[in-house]
Here is the input.
Amino acid sequence: MSVAGETRAAVDDHPFLRRALRAGVVNHAAAARFVDVAGDEDAVAAAIRRYGEELPAFAAGDRSAHVSMQSGLGESEDGLLAVAGTGFAPGEGDLTALLASGDVDSRSLAFALERLHAAGVDPVAAGVAGETLAVVVTRRAAADALRIVEDAVVAVPRAGGD
Here is the structure.
């Protein structure tokens, strides 16, 4: 495989780097040192620059979604969110579900989770199906998580390979 091909594959292995290239905020020389590509650093940096020029520009989407909270969730076999027999349903629990409905998809979920983790919020569970996204958090984290998810679902970048 060529240096350019290896470089593209290495960039694609790091979605944050690919997004940064789309946003035009990458120091190509630093990125060349970061990716694990054998070859001349200047050639790798040039390949990264060319790849970034080919990617669609990063632009926030025009999504419309409504986010609500449902408190008092506990574990159950089914409910608002269930995976492999473990679910979360309203009842006598101390968890909160953030439910986003509207123009949401797996990209919205990934973007929301990335922002939650950056803010130090570790969701208990999360998923998306149809036009609904669900994130389950502890009651203590619910208010902060609500604001983060509200901001995230409307700011998801438009499709373009990320």
